[in-house]
Design brief:
Length: 168
C-alpha cells in the first residue's frame, strides 16, 4: 500500500511539472519575436502584398487614405485591452519620434484606456481611432494587436518594431 501512495504522489508531481512547462511554452510562443525584433504581426497581409483601400479621419480631423500615405509610412495598431500593446507603445513612440519616416497609429477601441493611448501617441504620429472591422483594420487585415508595418507605395515592405526599440 505505501508503494501505491508514493506512485500516486510521483505521478501527481510529474503532472504538475508538465503543467508548469506547458504554461512556459505557451508564454514563450506568445512572446515569440520575429527577426525584425517586433512581435509576429497579427495581420494576414504579408511583406510584398498590397494593403486594401481605406479612408479614415485622424483625431486632428485630417483625412487619411491608402493613397495619401507618404512614400514610406510606419503604421502601428494598438488596442486598449491589450497588454503587449501597452508594453510596445513606448518603443513605437520612441521609434517614430526619432525617425524621418512619417507614422500612423491606429487605436482599435474606445473608452478611457483608448483615450490614454491616443494622448500618448498624438505627439509622435497621426492617430486614427477605429475598430478591427473598420475600414483601416480591414485594409490591413488586422487579426490581433499589436501589429507594426512599414508601407511604401501601397505595399507592405517590412513588419515588426525595430529591435533597437522593441523593448523600450
Amino acid at each position: 500500500m505505501p508503494y501505491l501512495v508514493v506512485a500516486v504522489i510521483l505521478v501527481a508531481l510529474l503532472c504538475l511539472v508538465n503543467l508548469v512547462l506547458t504554461f512556459g511554452v505557451i508564454r514563450r510562443l506568445r512572446d515569440h519575436e520575429s527577426p525584425a525584433g517586433g512581435p509576429v504581426p497579427e495581420t494576414s497581409v504579408r511583406v510584398g502584398e498590397e494593403i486594401g483601400p481605406f479612408a479614415a479621419t485622424t483625431t486632428l480631423g485630417e483625412r487619411v487614405t491608402a493613397d495619401s500615405l507618404a512614400a514610406r509610412t510606419f503604421v502601428g495598431f494598438f488596442a486598449p485591452g491589450c497588454g503587449p500593446c501597452h508594453e510596445k507603445l513606448p518603443g513605437f513612440v520612441n521609434h517614430v519620434s526619432g525617425s524621418t519616416v512619417p507614422a500612423l497609429a491606429v487605436v482599435l477601441g474606445e473608452g478611457e484606456e483608448a483615450a490614454e493611448m491616443v494622448t500618448a501617441l498624438e505627439g509622435a504620429a497621426r492617430v486614427v481611432i477605429s475598430t478591427r472591422e473598420g475600414a483601416i483594420g480591414s485594409a490591413f487585415r488586422i487579426t490581433g494587436t499589436p501589429a507594426f508595418l512599414t508601407v511604401e507605395a501601397g505595399r507592405v515592405v517590412a513588419t515588426g518594431l525595430p529591435q533597437t526599440v522593441a523593448t523600450a
